[in-house]
Every structure is written in structure tokens, then in C-alpha cells.
Design goal:
The chain is an alpha/beta fold and about 240 residues long. Helix content is about 35%, strand content about 15%. The protein contains 8 helices and 8 strands; from the N terminus they run βαβαβααβαβααβαββ. It is globular. It starts with a strand and ends with a strand.
């Protein structure tokens, strides 16, 4: 570990390109100016923790939310004791995305918004854990690129279960409704799920317990050094 002095917020009037928002603008945005702040590495040193997004994707009833909740608890608890927060697909649709339906365009916008929210959490040095069906590869890739543009890590976790297994579980009765035609554009029945081609982690949901799934994710994160904590010492910060 190397020692570095605490960053001075006033010393970064021109943030690096990765800390700027996307270049796409609208007429109203042309009058906006990006306000510089700490860079992500500077903030990480002050928080003694790295931030990133752990993106769980899979069919409804695959177990994403259950795994995400258990993972959040594990990361918040000793011996990790890290800042972590779960962003759940259903929960977000009760508030931020309450105006969206399930058409392809609404699904795209749903993921665009949550990708930005997750990136904000990650930039704030929190482990953002998202559990969204996110059925389209292009949308998941957009979320990944958004993080990369900001110098943030993005870990895609595919909770892989077959439609048959998900339908067998069906805790909310949604597959049954979809089969009856009561739910339109339901992923796996009347709308597609595009399987990840290069997810960092693949969890075989029918064969893996929640506890083992969490261990699998944590092992990967530890192997990448994402769960290391720095230490604050008098006169400076010990780099992670």
C-alpha cells in the first residue's frame, strides 16, 4: 500500500473526461454547465472503499431479488462492513419509473434510468446491486458503457434459470396470468429474454442455493480486489 495525501476539492477545476456526462444533449441542456467535483479515485480514497455496480439479470422468478438481498446483507455485515445498496426492479417501478410500462421502448427507458442511478451510487463509492430482468443485450451493454465512460466497474451477473423452472416457481402468479393472456409482453412468454453472451458471473439458479450464489459473487469480487478497504492514518490516506 502507498500513502497519499487527502485530495483538495478546489484543485480539480477541470475533471477528467470520464467524470463528464454523455455528450448527447437536447436544446434545454445546451445551457447547462457541468459542475466539477472530486474524481472517483479521490472519493474512493476518502471513503476508503471502491464503488461499482453488480448487475443481476434474469427471468422473473429466477431468484435475482432474493440473491441481491442476501448479497447486500453480506456486504454490509462484518467482515466486509462495506457500503452497499440494492436497487430492485419492482421497487423502482413504484417510484422513479412508475410512469413506465413494459413495451420495448419503456423497458429501454427503465434500464437507462436505473443505469444512471446505479452509476451515481457507484461513483459515491457504494456497491450498487441491481436486480432487473433487463431482457435486452443492447440495454445491458448501454449500462456497461455508461459505467466505463465514468471509470466505474460493472459486473454482470446472469441468474440463469429456464422458463420452465421460472414458471414452476412463479411466486407471484405472473406466468399463470401471462399464459392466460392477462399480462401482455411478459418476458419469457410473450416477450424475449436475450441471454448474456459474456457475463462476468453465471449462476445456475436451479442448481445453486442462495447462500452458494452469494459466495460465488463474493469470491469473484474478492478475486478482483473490489472488496478491499483502505485505511485512514494521521497525515494522509493509505491507498487501497
Amino acid at each position: 500500500m502507498s500513502t497519499s495525501t487527502a485530495p483538495d476539492p478546489t484543485s480539480t477545476p477541470n475533471p477528467p473526461p470520464s467524470s463528464h456526462p454523455p455528450t448527447t444533449t437536447t436544446t434545454n441542456q445546451n445551457n447547462l454547465t457541468w459542475s466539477p467535483s472530486l474524481t472517483h479515485p479521490q472519493r474512493s480514497l476518502l471513503r476508503c472503499q471502491k464503488g461499482l455496480t453488480i448487475w443481476l439479470t434474469g427471468l422473473s422468478a429466477s431468484g435475482k431479488s432474493t440473491i441481491a438481498t442476501a448479497l447486500e446483507t453480506t456486504l454490509l455485515s462484518p467482515p466486509h462492513s462495506l457500503s452497499a445498496y440494492r436497487l430492485d426492479g419492482d421497487n423502482i417501478r413504484h417510484g422513479l419509473n412508475a410512469d413506465l410500462g413494459f413495451s420495448p421502448s419503456d423497458r429501454e427507458e427503465n434500464i437507462r434510468r436505473i443505469a444512471h442511478v446505479a452509476a451515481l451510487f457507484a461513483d459515491a463509492c457504494t456497491l450498487a446491486i441491481t436486480s432487473f430482468i433487463s431482457p435486452y443485450r443492447a440495454d445491458r451493454e448501454t449500462a456497461r458503457k455508461l459505467h466505463a465512460e465514468r471509470g466505474l466497474e460493472f459486473v454482470e451477473v446472469w441468474v440463469d434459470v429456464s422458463v420452465e423452472e421460472a414458471e414452476r416457481r412463479d411466486p407471484k402468479g405472473l406466468y399463470k396470468k401471462a399464459r392466460k393472456g392477462e399480462l401482455k409482453e411478459f418476458t419469457g412468454i410473450s416477450a424475449p429474454y436475450e441471454e448474456p453472451e459474456s457475463a462476468e458471473i453465471r449462476i445456475r439458479g436451479a442448481e445453486t442455493s442462495v447462500e452458494e450464489a452469494v459466495k460465488q459473487i463474493v469470491r469473484f469480487l474478492e478475486g478482483k480486489g473490489y472488496l478491499k478497504r483502505g485505511e485512514v492514518q494521521e497525515g494522509g490516506l493509505v491507498e487501497m
